[in-house]
Design goal:
Blueprint lengths: L4 E10 L2 E11 L4 E5 L6 H8 L6 E6 L2 E2 L5 E4 L11 H6 L12 H13 L15 H14 L4 E5 L7 H18 L2 E5 L3 H7 L2 E6 L2 E6 L1 H4 L2 H8 L1 E8 L3 E9 L13
Parallel strand pairs: 3-8, 3-9, 6-7, 7-8
Antiparallel strand pairs: 1-2, 1-4, 4-5, 9-10, 11-12
Helix pairs in contact: 3-4
InterPro entries: AAA+_ATPase, ABC_transporter-like_ATP-bd, P-loop_NTPase
Pfam families: ABC_tran (PF00005)
Protein name: Iron complex transport system ATP-binding protein
């Protein structure tokens, strides 16, 4: 498969510290992929490598060639804008390459439409720095969507959102993927959100790939014990699919090793 996002023995290193090593996976377009794993396992570094912000070993390709910045939307984990810009102006920056002295009516309509889909069109004239952290996340995600990327990378884009807005974001991402055929990769800590909304997942552990594919095939009680250090039940809901129920933290020294995928 040459279409989609392909990782070929990808590694990232900071000085003598190896952050990622020999990551191999591939994902077809038209999907939402959940990038999951414990804190410090390399999720942000992997997204940074795909976005071209971190040097890496190996090869990362999208649709048969190197990742093109023109087709990319990237939202890092700690995104904040301190400039004195309105919400609408921040969203319009998603099309900054196409903006001239005047903003066309079509672009304005698209920007207001995206803000409306998030339920924050009433904030359009507000200064971005006056918003809450969750509201800023929604604005910055709206900015990336206005760009209409073929590959959208999101690093903890729902971390500051309440439950209703988390669900709304995934509804919007699903509609975007179905409408455009884009590939969305989102780093996320909430395994239940990943189980419900992701078409596939990429599970990292200690800088290596612990598994990739369908959530139900990758995330098992054994994997949760070995990778996350928790005892948990994996239940099946007729409405939402798999549901992770954490029961207890595993005592140190009692976790059996798990073989990482090549």
């Amino acid at each position: 498969m040459s279409e989609g996002l392909i990782f070929d023995r990808v590694g990232v290193q900071f000085g003598s510290r190896i952050v990622l090593s020999d990551v191999e996976a591939q994902f077809a377009p038209g999907q939402i992929i959940g990038l999951v794993g414990p804190n410090g396992c390399g999720k942000s570094s992997l997204l940074g490598a795909v976005a071209g912000l971190l040097s890496h070993r190996g090869e990362i390709t999208f649709n048969g060639r190197g990742v093109d910045a023109q087709n990319l939307g990237y939202m890092p984990q700690h995104s904040q804008i301190r400039a004195s810009l309105s919400v609408l102006e921040v969203v319009l920056l998603g099309r900054h390459e196409q903006l001239g002295w005047r903003v066309s009516a079509d672009v304005l309509e698209a920007a207001y439409g995206i803000l409306g889909s998030f339920g924050i069109e009433d904030l359009a004239s507000r200064p971005i720095h006056a918003l809450s952290g969750g509201q800023q996340q929604l604005v910055l995600l709206a900015q990336r969507l206005l760009r209409a990327p073929r590959l959208l990378l999101l690093d903890e884009a729902t971390s500051a959102l309440d439950l209703a807005h988390q669900l709304r974001v995934f509804e919007i991402l699903r509609a975007y993927v179905e409408r455009t055929g884009a590939l969305v990769m989102i780093a996320i800590h909430d395994l239940n959100l990943a189980a419900r909304h992701a078409d596939g997942i990429m599970l990292l552990r200690n800088g290596g790939l612990a598994g990739s594919g369908r959530f139900d095939d990758v995330v098992t009680p054994q994997v949760l014990r070995s990778v996350y250090g928790v005892e948990a039940e994996v239940l099946t809901s007729c409405r939402t699919g798999s549901v992770i129920v954490p029961l207890a933290r595993v005592r140190e020294g009692s976790v059996a090793p798990i073989r990482l995928s090549p």
